[in-house]
């Protein structure tokens, strides 16, 4: 079986972002970019499945401008066998990404598709569900545990839901999106980073895949959230209780 | 589309009036129910629907099976004046909230009803199901809306709530939204209106079953608790890594009990196994906006702040005076939580 993993290049999770003065978006020039943390987890899970003998190949896929190749190299250094880059200059909405992925699934024929549950830039949490819908495959979103059954050709997925943990059994092929607690992604070692340089990255354009790039949205403006007014540092629990009671009136 | 639907269904002619009046806006709300009642969270989707436009008949879609579904439908029919219709999909296929049958159901109901908007709460249910249905309908949903400025303009947080993005939806109908429940609080409902909305069964005979049945529900494991629900509690008491152990975390629970509060946790506390994952507050956990949020031993990482910085009053207790949590706290106490919590437990007034 082949596993396809979608990875996204985003502003590093530790960066305190700045809204652009023209209110057109968020400053991304000269800002540290990394692989979306949930995508790292997705890739790690695919590699684990491969190491357990269930999968033969792990293919990392990314979509966006040419520097997404850096993200794919990171994925190859972690252990992906090869990569696919769909080069698109415009920002892609999840629906377009899902349509591009569907075309790649038709070409590559993977038995499992793993994505992160959300990208930490747009916080959409849509792509995995959309690609599952487009393919008519079952979906296991927000996965914190994945167990594959080779004979029955199913995946048992523990999902983090509002009320606790839900367990589903999915027929393969399926789409799984990863939650934080699924695994601890590995670091790429120096020899593997060197090796990754010679692994193949295949390129496509959206035109070659016959997908029209469009967006159903117009960004009117991006603004900073309202600032909270400065608080006070108190010296004792008594003072705290007094403030909560007589100033804030919340207890 | 709406016309054809009515012509084909003479029995539903009663709907004629409301469907035509709704040319500007008509909304389908996806609702969750439990134990014969609509979940409180789902009602915030109704509140959001109500703010799209004044003349906006709302159809509530409920799915499930058996008597608890029918019971929930009856309650739903009278729970909010803007609900004009309750649609019920009664089938074993909907016994559990699986995305595959739900996605198809929404597609089916939308193709028949031609709604201008489809709204769900951004709970784990809404987030799981809405995008799948949107892909089937070939439209892009807007996730986690916190403000509605007219039928096509919405505000949603991006980058873990560090920026607010105003988007105009320019795509085809329906415009699909998931809304943040804390941003659309449900007002205390007065007397339920006497003339309830009509309840009708969804005709499932044309349900496309191609992708249904490829997923099966096995089990749901959850912590039983009699504390208020984290998402809607008036007071939330949260503990972080500094609690050091599950044993010590019980202090947080005791304090919560005394305040009638829900218990929250940071990712560090969940990963360390102090508490189960459903208590996590943050970008990837629950988003809360209570009147009082008390954070003990929480440093205040970007990802945690994303889940709580809309709280009305924030209290932080931390040993480290430079912890970022103090930048958002209204009241800060620099000190050892192992002294502060017992002190609070002793001195806080008893709940009436």
TrEMBL record, chain A:
From which organism does this entry originate?
A: Hibiscus syriacus (Rose of Sharon)
Q: Which family does it belong to?
A: Belongs to the ETF beta-subunit/FixA family.
Q: Which UniProt keywords apply?
A: Electron transport, Mitochondrion, Transport
Q: What is its main location?
A: mitochondrion
The entry describes its oligomerization and partners as:
Heterodimer of an alpha and a beta subunit.
The record, for InterPro entries, names: ET-Flavoprotein_bsu_CS, ETF_a/b_N, ETF_b, ETF_beta_N, Rossmann-like_a/b/a_fold
Under PANTHER family, the record lists:
ELECTRON TRANSFER FLAVOPROTEIN BETA-SUBUNIT, ELECTRON TRANSFER FLAVOPROTEIN SUBUNIT BETA
Q: Where found?
A: Mitochondrion matrix
List the molecular function annotations (GO) for this entry: electron transfer activity
- Protein's UniProt name: Electron transfer flavoprotein subunit beta
The cross-references to SMART domains, in alphabetical order and at most eight, read: ETF
Stretches assigned to the Electron transfer flavoprotein alpha/beta-subunit N-terminal domain: 23-213
Any Pfam family from its record, for instance, is ETF
Instruction: Cite a GO CC annotation.
Output: mitochondrial matrix
One of the protein's GO biological processes: fatty acid beta-oxidation using acyl-CoA dehydrogenase
Tell me, in a sentence or two, what this protein's role is.
The electron transfer flavoprotein serves as a specific electron acceptor for several dehydrogenases, including five acyl-CoA dehydrogenases, glutaryl-CoA and sarcosine dehydrogenase. It transfers the electrons to the main mitochondrial respiratory chain via ETF-ubiquinone oxidoreductase (ETF dehydrogenase).
From TrEMBL, chain B:
Q: Name one GO biological process term.
A: fatty acid beta-oxidation using acyl-CoA dehydrogenase
GO function term, MF aspect, one: flavin adenine dinucleotide binding
Q: CDD domains from the entry? A: ETF_alpha
Record-linked InterPro entries: DHS-like_NAD/FAD-binding_dom, ETF_a/b_N, ETF_a/FixB, ETF_alpha_N, ETF_asu_C, ETF_asu_C_CS, Rossmann-like_a/b/a_fold
**Any idea where the Electron transfer flavoprotein alpha/beta-subunit N-terminal domain is?**
27-216
Q: Which GO terms describe its cellular component?
A: mitochondrial matrix
Q: Mention any Pfam family matching this sequence.
A: ETF
The UniProt annotation places FAD binding at 241, 266-267, 280-284, 297-304, 318
- Cofactor binding notes: Binds 1 FAD per dimer.
Q: What SUPFAM superfamilies does its record include?
A: Adenine nucleotide alpha hydrolases-like, DHS-like NAD/FAD-binding domain
Signal peptide residue numbers = none
State where the protein is found: Mitochondrion matrix
Per the record, the domain of life is Eukaryota
Q: How does it assemble?
A: Heterodimer of an alpha and a beta subunit.
The similarity comment for this entry is:
Belongs to the ETF alpha-subunit/FixB family.
Q: Which PANTHER family match?
A: ELECTRON TRANSFER FLAVOPROTEIN ALPHA, ELECTRON TRANSFER FLAVOPROTEIN SUBUNIT ALPHA, MITOCHONDRIAL
Q: What does this protein do?
A: The electron transfer flavoprotein serves as a specific electron acceptor for several dehydrogenases, including five acyl-CoA dehydrogenases, glutaryl-CoA and sarcosine dehydrogenase. It transfers the electrons to the main mitochondrial respiratory chain via ETF-ubiquinone oxidoreductase (ETF dehydrogenase).
**Name under which the protein is recorded:** Electron transfer flavoprotein subunit alpha
**Source organism (scientific name):** Hibiscus syriacus
């Amino acid at each position: 079986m082949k596993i396809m993993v979608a990875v996204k290049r985003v502003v590093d999770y530790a960066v305190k972002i700045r809204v652009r003065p023209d209110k057109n978006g968020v400053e991304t020039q000269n800002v540290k970019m990394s692989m979306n943390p949930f995508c790292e987890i997705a890739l790690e899970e695919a590699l684990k499945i491969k190491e357990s003998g269930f999968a033969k190949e792990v293919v990392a896929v990314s979509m966006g401008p040419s520097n997404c190749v850096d993200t794919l190299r990171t994925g190859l250094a972690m252990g992906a066998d090869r990569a696919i880059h769909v080069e698109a200059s415009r920002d892609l909405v999840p629906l377009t990404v899902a349509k591009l992925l569907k075309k790649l699934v038709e070409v590559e024929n993977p038995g499992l598709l793993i994505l992160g549950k959300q990208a930490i830039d747009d916080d959409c949490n849509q792509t995995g569900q959309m690609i599952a819908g487009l393919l008519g495959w079952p979906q296991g979103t927000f996965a914190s545990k994945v167990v594959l059954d080779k004979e029955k050709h199913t995946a048992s997925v523990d999902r983090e839901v509002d009320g606790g943990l839900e367990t589903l059994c999915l027929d393969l092929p399926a789409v799984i999106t990863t939650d934080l607690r699924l695994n601890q992604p590995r670091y790429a070692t120096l020899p593997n980073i060197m090796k990754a340089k010679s692994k193949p990255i295949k390129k496509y354009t959206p035109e070659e895949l016959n997908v029209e790039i469009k967006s159903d949205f117009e960004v009117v403006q991006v603004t900073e959230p309202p600032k909270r007014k400065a608080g006070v540092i108190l010296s004792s629990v008594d003072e705290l209780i007094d403030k909560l009671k007589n100033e804030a009136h919340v207890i | 589309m709406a016309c054809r639907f009515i012509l084909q269904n003479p029995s539903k002619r009663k709907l004629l009036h409301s469907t035509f009046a709704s040319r500007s806006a008509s909304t389908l709300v996806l609702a969750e129910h439990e134990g014969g009642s609509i979940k409180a969270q789902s009602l915030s989707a109704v509140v959001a629907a109500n703010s799209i436009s004044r003349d906006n008949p709302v159809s509530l879609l409920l799915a499930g099976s058996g008597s608890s579904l029918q019971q929930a439908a009856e309650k739903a029919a009278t729970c909010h004046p803007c609900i004009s219709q309750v649609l019920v999909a009664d089938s074993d296929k909907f016994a559990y909230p699986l995305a595959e049958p739900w996605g198809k159901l929404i597609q089916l109901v939308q193709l028949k009803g031609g709604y201008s908007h489809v709204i769900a709460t951004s709970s784990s249910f809404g987030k799981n199901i809405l995008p799948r249905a949107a892909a089937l309908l070939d439209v892009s949903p807007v996730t986690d809306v916190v403000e509605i400025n007219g039928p096509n303009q919405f505000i949603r947080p991006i980058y873990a709530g560090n920026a607010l993005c105003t988007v105009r939806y320019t795509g085809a109908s329906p415009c699909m939204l998931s809304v943040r429940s804390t941003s659309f609080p449900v007002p205390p409902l007065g007397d339920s209106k006497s003339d309830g909305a009509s309840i009708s069964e969804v005709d499932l005979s044309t349900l496309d079953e191609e992708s249904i049945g490829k997923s099966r529900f096995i089990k749901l494991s959850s912590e039983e608790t009699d504390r208020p629900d984290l998402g809607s509690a008036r007071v939330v008491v949260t503990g972080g890594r500094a609690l050091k152990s599950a044993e010590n975390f019980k202090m947080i629970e005791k304090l919560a009990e005394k305040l009638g509060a829900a218990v929250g946790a940071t990712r560090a506390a969940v990963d360390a196994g102090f508490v189960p994952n459903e208590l996590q507050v943050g970008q990837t956990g629950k988003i809360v906006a209570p009147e009082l949020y008390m954070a003990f031993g929480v440093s205040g990482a970007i990802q945690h702040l994303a889940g709580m910085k809309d709280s009305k009053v924030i209290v932080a207790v931390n040993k480290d005076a430079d912890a970022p949590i103090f930048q958002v706290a209204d009241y800060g106490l620099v000190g050892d939580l192992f002294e502060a919590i017992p002190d609070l437990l002793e001195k806080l007034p008893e709940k009436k």
